[in-house]
Amino acid sequence: MKKIKSGFTLIELLVVIAIIAILALVVIVSYDGVKKRARDTRRRADIETLASAFAMYRLDAKTYELPSAEVTSISGYVNCGAKSIGAYLKTNGYLSQMIKDPSHDSTSGPICTADYMYFGGPTTCTSDVASVYAKLESTSAGDTAAGVCGYTTASIPTNGMNLAKDLN
Questions:
Q1: Beta-carbon neighbour count of residue 114 at 10 Å?
Q2: What is the phi/psi pair of residue 77, to 5°?
Q3: What digits encode the pLDDT tens for the residues 145-154?
Q4: Which of 25, 86, 105, 121 pairs with 165 at a CA distance of 20 to 30 A?
Q5: How far does CA 84 lie from the centroid of its chain?
Q6: What distance in Å separates the CA atoms of residue 51 and residue 64, rounded to the nearest whole number?
Q7: CA distance 122 to 138
Q8: Among 86, 93, 101, which Cα is nearest to 41's?
Q9: Mean pLDDT across 11-25
Q10: Is the pLDDT confidence value at 100 over 70?
Q11: Cα torsion at 7, 10, 12, 13 (round to 10°)?
């Protein structure tokens, strides 16, 4: 009587492992794209929130120019230090919470990078208009790279901005 061998050969096992590895790679790559799009969606919402905050500020102050005594820089980074543009808007009730880029750790302090920027007011623009900017990880057809202040992707001090929201 012959014995029947049961089990898998080494080749069969290697083929199954290779297929599983390829499927895992496809899932990981697509998941990374989903995370980027989710962070960009948050950035777009943050830009709208900043635009609303500046619109409320303009109603009160009649200008987009921020008081230079209360902010470190009247144009530039939104979140950078205790006297940042974002801190001023939050302290004065125009923002309910600080705007923070979703790719940064939530426990770290102010991020002095060009994730969100603001340029506006008569000091930096030719008229009383302004723009807020965000740095997206991936752009789509509706994204704007230049704002009304004449700043473009290439002329913003720290390049890489690829979404502009005009405030006028």
A1: 20
A2: -60, 135
A3: 555 555 554 4
A4: 105
A5: 17
A6: 11
A7: 32
A8: 101
A9: 95
A10: yes
A11: 90
